[in-house]
What does this fold into?
Amino acid sequence: MSDTMKENNNTITIDGREIPFKEGQTIMDAALAADIYIPHLCHRPGLKPHGSCKLCTVEVNGRSASACTLPAAKGQEISNNTEALNGVRKTITQMLFVEGNHFCPACEKTGDCTLQAVAYHLDMLDGHFPQFYPRREVDASHPGIVLDRDRCIMCELCVRTSREMDGKDVFAITGRGIDAKLIVNSASGKLADTDITTDDLAAHICPVGAILIKEHGYEVPIGRRTFDLHTIAEPGVEPVILRKGKHADEH
Amino acid sequence: MSEQMRRVAIDPVTRVEGHGKITLLQDADNRVHEARLHIVEFRGFEKFIQGRPYWEVSTFVQRLCGICPVSHHLAAAKAIDQLVGVEELTPSALKLRQLLHFGQTLQSHALHFFHLSSPDLLFGFGSDVAKRNIIGVIEKYPETAVKGVKLRKYGQQVIAAIAGKRVHGSAAIPGGMNKSLSREERNSLLADIKDIIAWSQDAVSLSEQIHMAHPENHDFGKLNTNFLGMIGPKGELELYHGGLRARAADGSTILDQFDYRGYQDIIREEVRSWSYMKFPYLSSLGKEKGWYRVGPLARVNNCDSISTPLAEAARKRFKAFANGAFVQDTLAYHWARMIEALHCAESIELLLGDEDISGDDLVVTGEKRDEGIGVIEAPRGTLFHHYKIDEEGMIRKANLIVSTTSNNQAMNESVRSVADQYIDGKEITEGLLNHLEVAVRAYDPCLSCATHAMGKMPLQVELVDADGRLVDRLTKGSDGRIERSM
Ligand code: SF4
Ligand code: FES
Ligand code: NI
It folds into this structure.
C-alpha cells in the first residue's frame, strides 16, 4: 500500500497488517470486521462494550489498552498476537478458572463454552493458581432456566443483553473483585420472580455454562459441538445457543 | 433449598486414589481371626451431587472412576430415564446402550485379566516381583500379551465410536442417546470382530487351563457364599437390564426376577467403624449370613444360560468343573470374567449387524417423577444408582452401591483365609503380601481403578496382635518397592 493511500484512508495496523476502520469503531470492531481475532470474553458485537475482562488487552503505540473500548484512530500501531500479550491473557484466563468452580468435564456447555475455547486457544493446560472454591448459589427456581453461579465469570453479557436487547432488567452484578456476584433483580432475588422467559436472548447469551436452559445437556454428540469443529480464532465463530436441534453444523 | 446447594469441585487426583490397606488381627495363638481391608472409595460423592441438575448427573458420575466411567454413566442414565418417566427406550437407543456396555465390559475384563492378573497367574504368586508384571508377560508370552492389548483396544474403540471418546465421552441423555452409529462406523468395527471373538475364545481357554492346571489354588481364598446379580427374563446372563436373582451357596433361590427398584427392601448396608466402605447384605438373611458376592463369578454361576453360543459352551464347561454346583473358587473369577468377555465379543458382533444401531429414533419423553433407580451389571458387579429430585429438578438425595462395596465382606474373608494360611508367626513376609494382593485382585476391586495404569496396587499390610498392638507393617509402593516401616 502506498503512502498516499494510507493518508486517504482511516487505517490502523495490527501485527503489521494494515486494516481500515470506520468512524466510531473500536479497535475490536475493526479487527473483527477484518477477520482478525483478538481474544475477548466480555465483548459481543451489538452490545455496548464493557471492558471488564481485560482479555482483549493489546498494545497501542507501545501502551496497553482494551481493544473493545478504545476507539480506533488513524495510524495506530497495534500489537495483538504476541507471546507476551498471550501470556498475560493466559494468566487472566487461569484466574477466571480458579475464581469460579469450573468443572468442565461435567458441564453441559463443554465443547460450546467460550471460556474453555479461549483457554485452548491460549494453550492453557492447568489453572496454575490455587483454586478459590468460592461458595456460590445455584438458582433453579425458574421453570425453564437454571442459573449456576459457580460458572459465572462476571462478564455482564446477560446484564447488558437483558437491558439492551430484551428490554428487561433481569440481571445485575454487585460487589467488586472477589466479592462480585451475579444477582437477579426481583424482590425474592429468585429468577422465578423475574419476567425472563426462555425466549429472551439473555437466557442464551452466557458464554459459559452459568445460564442454561433446563433439562437439556449433552444432546450434541462429541465431534459436532462448536469447538470440536472450529477454533475460537476462526472468523465468524459465534458461541452457540444451546438448544435442542440447533447446532454448529446445522445452522 | 438454595442454602444447601453445593459447589462442585472435585480434585480429580484425590478422589479414588490411595493405598489399599489391610489390617490383620491375630489372636493369642497367632491365628488371623479377622482381616480388614480398607479401601478409599467414593466418600462424599453423594454429597457432591446434591443440588446439581438431574440431567447433568449421568455425565458427572463418570468421574467416579477412570476405568469404569461408562458403567456409572449407564447406571445413572437408567435412573434418569425413570426421572423423566421413560420405562422403555426406542430399540435404537436400547441397542446402542447395550453395545456401549459390552464395549466397556470387554475392555475392562481384558485389562484386568491380561494387564493386571496374568503376571500372577502365568508366573506364580510367589515368583520374582521384578518379572511379575505385564512387561514380563510381553517378554515371555508375547502372543498372549498382544491379544490382551488388542482386546482392550477394541472395547475402547466401540466406546469411542458411540460416546465420542474412549473415556468420559457423552452418549446417554435422559430418555435415550445423543447419536447413533453410521454404517461406516459399524463396518469399520465389524472388520475386526472375527479376530476379537477368536482371541476372546483363546482367553477363555487360557483362563480355564490355568485354573485346571493348579488344583493347589482352588482353595485359595475360597469361600462359600451367596451370589447376587441381574438376569434376563429367561434366566440368562444379562448385563444391561433385568431382574435381580440371589442364590445361596447350596444353589437354592433366595429371590428371583426381583424388580431392582425395590432394592432397599432386600439389601441393607452395615456401617463398621473402621471402614469407609459399607457392608451390604441381604436383609432376609441378616448381617451374619446375608453377605454375598457379585461380579463375573456370581453372574456366571447365577445364570441358567448365556445367549451367545461360544460363551454358552464355555459356561457349560465351567459348570461341569463343580459338577453343576456353584463354582466357589475365588480364583475362578478370572475364568468367569473371560467367559463374559467372550459373550461381550459375540454380542458386539450381533449388535453391529443390527440396523437399529443406525436408526435415528433415539429419544423418548415421559411424565417427570421425583425418584429414579438405575441398576446395571458393571464389569465388577451389580451397580446401583438411586436419585431423588426436588420440584426444581435438582438432586436432593443420591445413593450409590458400587460393585466393589458389595464384595466388601467377601474380600475381607478371602484375605483372612489367605493370611491365615500363609502367615509366618508374627511377621508379614513379602510372600504373604503378594498372596494377599492376588486374593484381593481376583475381585477386581475399584481400588485398582486408580492403579490399573501402573499395573501395581499400592498396598500396606499391618499386623495387630491379640492385645491390639501393632507388631508389623509392610508397605508396597506403586513402584513395586517394599518397605518395612516399624
Ligand atoms: S451469568 Fe454468564 S453472561 Fe451473565 S455475567 Fe455470568 S458469565 Fe456473564
Ligand atoms: S473483551 Fe475487552 S475487556 Fe473483555
Ligand atoms: Ni471403578
In short: Chain A has two domains: 3-81, 85-229. Residues 1-8, 242-251 of chain A have pLDDT under 50 and may be disordered. Residues B 65, 67-68, 446, 449 surround nickel (II) ion (ligand 3) (CB under 6 Å). Residues 3-81 of chain A form a domain with the Ubiquitin-like (UB roll) fold (CATH 3.10.20.740).
